[in-house]
Write a structure and sequence with these properties.
The protein has about 450 residues and is of the alpha/beta class. The chain contains 13 helices and 19 strands.
Amino acid sequence: MTTAGCLACSEANLRRRDFLRVGSLSLLGINLSQYLRLKQVMAAERGSSALHAKAQACILLWLEGGPSQMDTWDPKPNSPFRPISTNVAGIQISELLPRVAKRMDKLSIIRTMYTEENNHPQASYYAMTGHRPNPAMEFPSFGSIITKEMGGRNDVPPHILAPQWEIERQYEEYFKASFLGAEYDPLIVPDPSSKDFQLPDLSLPKSITLDRLEDRRSFLKLVDRRYREKARIAERGAGDTFSQQAQNMILSPTVRDSFDLSKEPEKIKDAYGRNAFGQSVLLARRLVEAGSRFVTAAGYKFNAWDTHCDNYRLHRDQLVPVLDQTLATLLEDLEQRGLLESTVVLAIGEFGRTPHHNPNAGRDHWSHCWSMALGGGGIRGGQLVGASDDKGAYLAAGRRVTIGDLFATVYKAFGIDWHKEYMHPIGRPVKIANSENDHNGEPVAQLI
């Protein structure tokens, strides 16, 4: 008997047809063959500038719901939390971020982000693609574009999203590749903080050891030798190549180990935080170290940062302390491992919060002027981009930064031409760094 999505245990699976299913295992959103074709195609498309760029990977800390800029990166008098100094003269952040404050030289803050959507689904889509939702077109995500442009490394899946949403699963679509093809979609993994965390598609049934699988591969070679004498078809040969590579991925200690958090010391797990966000970020570090290109670490409960009620209490007691611990640990860990110079780190939500509070002691959605933090991968640390007014509501000085400008900045760090366009199937060119009024985003010169 066979089971879809994994190797089955029956001896009947020695049959060639069943055995080859290892080459098309579904990795919770992207299958191995798709990933392997991605690797082959992109090896030919990467430009020489990308090969010599500092940035080789990106970790996105996704703060779904929209953090309050006044209570985090841009402290103002309308916040109950006092500003504290950082290790960079002239930069202050909220007292809720004391650990990050000691590493501010590794991060920069954009205080004048601007987006064109003010509702969660539309704003999340916009933040991930740089395009407003359009019923006639779908657009590829930022992570998928970086994956396409950079290609894979070391047989490790290049694009990851952790963890899988428990509700509102349609949000996963915003992180996918759209018309670029499913091979550029993220591999979506379960909650890494779960006790039984594992990827089913990289785990063999207990009755099949690695040695047995190797034996079966040897047997398959004998069958294939006879088969190919009767049917030598180019497409068949290419398919077998991908199947062979897929089997190699399952057998690869590098791939299996990159997802195995049991390899991490308990001290490191504690440092990142024993929660879904902390362990997702730890997994992200393991993955980029192994060769992944773009990893989104979510992990907060759905819409956790959407503080329409109890904004101050939630930021103080639940939200910001987790971010402070995990982000500070990530920066230190990446630096100690020699990875910070090659890994862009982004901490961002889909928008900010209103400068005033509502009758429920909450802050509502605000897209006109808000804040985010970024660093690593050639992005200059210790910089402030722009300044908001005394309430953190509107641009007061410097440049307004759009999502397209942010994308262009990160693309430049990767050596990707941010003016590039892809042709949509309907025949319309699509900018990979789309800013306002269908103009190209431009890198923030202060940062790179």
